[in-house]
Amino acid sequence: MANLPTNYRDDVLDTSVNEKRRFTMIDNGDGTYSFDDETVYSVVGSDYGASDINATNRRVNSLNDKMNFLTGGFVIRDASINLANKSFNLLNADITEDSLAMVYFHDEYKDDISDAGVIANTYNGGIAFTSDVALATAIICDIYVVAEVEEESEGE
């Protein structure tokens, strides 16, 4: 899915010409009136309509759908990973080979991690980290471990 726009702009009135928005009232001849915007703008803002909110809602819904199968789990904060020998095992009895572990390296280590090609795989009892290159310093990360929801049978 394409990224949603993040460059919307507000109208900016040219206050050297008008302090408030200005409109011309047009008599439609049937007892109703229409209005033409006569405001002078230094910046004309972005349009935001139904297609924008629908795209946003579709994106949020797709994220919700992806997260619906996840439940419970736990967080390991500020885990210290030492890849001086290109591998490291983080032991935790609650992790299984079927666990989903999302690893978020702290910002100051992201370049090192990207250059090193670090990979994390779960196994029964922990997470195995491997690296293409040895890292001279320990790296710090947060790990979110989640499990699949087991579907309940009808009638239970």
Could you describe the 3D structure shown?
This protein has 156 residues and is α+β, with helices and mostly antiparallel strands. It has two domains: 12-66, no CATH class; 70-147. It has two helices and ten strands. The strands form four sheets. It has a three-stranded antiparallel β-sheet, with no helix packed on it. Strands 6-9-8 form a three-stranded antiparallel β-sheet, with no helix packed on it. A two-stranded antiparallel ribbon has the order 1-4. Strand 2 (23-27) and strand 3 form a beta hairpin. The longest helix has 18 residues, at 50-67. It is elongated and about 80 Å long. The relative contact order is 0.18. The model is unreliable at 148-153 (pLDDT under 50).
